[in-house]
Automatic annotation (TrEMBL):
InterPro entries: Glyco_trans_2-like, Nucleotide-diphossugar_trans. It comes from Chryseobacterium endalhagicum. The keyword Repeat does not apply. This is Glycosyltransferase family 2 protein. Keywords: Glycosyltransferase, Transferase. Residues 5-130 form the Glycosyltransferase 2-like domain.
Amino acid sequence: MTDISVIIPVYNASAFLEKSVASALPFEEVKEIILVEDKSTDHSLEICRKLAEQHSKVKLFQHPDQGNHGAAATRNLGIEKSTGNFIAFLDADDYYLPNRFDIEKKAFENPTIDGVFGAITVEYLTEKGKQEFQSKFTNVSLTTVNYPAEGKEVFRGLLGLTTKTFGTFFHLNTLTVRKSALQKNNLKFNETLRVHQDSDFIIKLAFHCHLKSGIIDQPIAVRGVHDDNRITKIVKYSPQYNQRQFLLWNSLYDWSNKNKPDRDAMQHIALQKKAFELSTKKGFSKTAALLAAIVKDPKILKTKYRFTYTHS
């Protein structure tokens, strides 16, 4: 296994990009590092060009119209341009640790394994970023799963349907997947989602492909937390948070109706979608719709949406 394409979407990451690329360069397994620049307003494009000139592994691409299309479309373009048999992802403000690909070579000797994932830790780059992150993700220094898992257990675990507590989502930075598995199942990032497109992609990937946990008790990558992390800016259970969650679960709902996972999974996805759909309503219409939904299926009260949230 010596041909991994590392895909880095780049948008306003001039302060972090060089460290991110430097962390991927030393690996013999990494055939190429694909930078897809998404019309940054800082000096990111200039840095991308410099890195591509300095390192033969680094390749630079932009969207055909050189416009800004978001992380999903940017990663999709990276996959399209990749030439490796394996795909790995890295955010431009994050970096790999030296053990990043320790498990992959042995794991992928098994042709039934489509993807391997591991654990990621956080590094606080600013005090404000630290406070915002910890207010949303309490006591989360290591994003990982709680026990070794593979196959459908991963899919069900990500939906919270396993008998044991599965743990948190694994991060895209820790995933290595066969490109052929993405092509076979026509798996791409949903370009209509400006956030949560990674969660959407991972859940669908876990259903269609045979994923296996790798190193889950120590980090293989580091997530940089700073003032400009978009995902930590939104107050949990606020109207904006609920709207974005609705878009995520609506995407999964449409997908589940086409792909028909097991009944529990379809019901769970439908309830999550309905719960966050209700969260966008206000006043009496919201109360009436909620009561009707509870009568139809009381399990809706166990969804991720907090019905006790009173702001509108």
